[in-house]
Amino acid sequence: MNAESFFKQGWRKFKYDGVLAEWVKCALPEARKAVGKQENAQWLRCGGTWFAGVSVLPNLASGALGGCGPLQGTAVEFVRHCLDLSNPDLDRGQISVCYPGYPQPMESESGAAFRYRRDCDAAHVDGLLAEGATRRRHLREHHGFILGIPLVDFSADASPFVVWEKSHEIIRTAFGTRFKGLAPSKWGDEDVTEIYQRTRKNVFATCKRVEIAVKPGQAFVVHRLAVHGVAPWGKSATTGADGRMICYFRPKISGPLEWLSAK
Fold it and tell me: What distance in Å separates the CA atoms of residue 262 and residue 260, rounded to the nearest whole number?
């Protein structure tokens, strides 16, 4: 299983996989239940056009749920055997749903934040969290990768996942310089807002923006350091009553040093 293109581009799409498609059949009813639970209403945002759904899928660390066995297939084997990581167990799946009209303004975000979401796909790197009233960025979470699995059929312009090719190495270089000489245990204490914003602008100017179109039974894997986001709902986009529903797995790895230095 050749990983060269993944490490060069920062992402990879996988063809239809019957094994994965069977898991999707089991996961979809559980995802629908999670979206409809009152306890998960907090995740419905952007004027009702986005269900963020972090960690709402009730899967085991193997990915098993709803009477189905472990999550398996070509994409899963890729992340287990081709990525230079400590082979983490899967986290509970994030059920991300976009609906027609995404995005709409949220009361909790500024006008600038909404425009960034609308015009720049809310582009970000996972784990660099905005904190406090001034939204200063700190490295708080260390995810190993992003595995995206579509659960329903939707058109390619229905708020697709967006990634900036080769941005992972730009991020790696910038943060390697920023953290040079500091113990990894101290990296989370550092305010990295300025270097993060400058580097994102560099990524926008130099990297190719790619919209990833997928169907149930397919999957994609994105490098943990890659700049990525979600595009607005297209004018001619189509989907069913479930909206644009994707399950994401973003398992955590050993810590900041592996986050920055692993291939």
Answer: 6
pLDDT digits (tens, 9 = 90+) for 201-242: 999 999 999 999 999 999 999 999 999 999 999 999 999 999
* Under 8 Å between Cβ of 223 and 229: no
Which of 172, 175, 159, 158 lies closest to 238 in space, CA to CA?
158
CA distance 256 to 4: 24
Fold of 4-261: Jelly Rolls (2.60.120)
Residues lower than pLDDT 50 in the chain? none
pLDDT for position 196: 98
All structural domains of the chain with their residue ranges: 4-261
Which residues, 6 or more positions from 47, have their beta carbon under 8 angstroms from its beta carbon? 101, 103, 104, 105, 106
pLDDT at 87: 67
Residue 1 pLDDT:
54
Task: Please list, in sequence order, all residues whose beta carbon lies within 8 angstroms of the beta carbon of residue 98, skipping any fewer than 6 positions away.
Answer: 49, 50, 51, 158, 159, 230, 233, 243, 244
The whole-angstrom separation of Cα 169 and Cα 263 is 10
Average pLDDT of the chain, as a whole number: 96
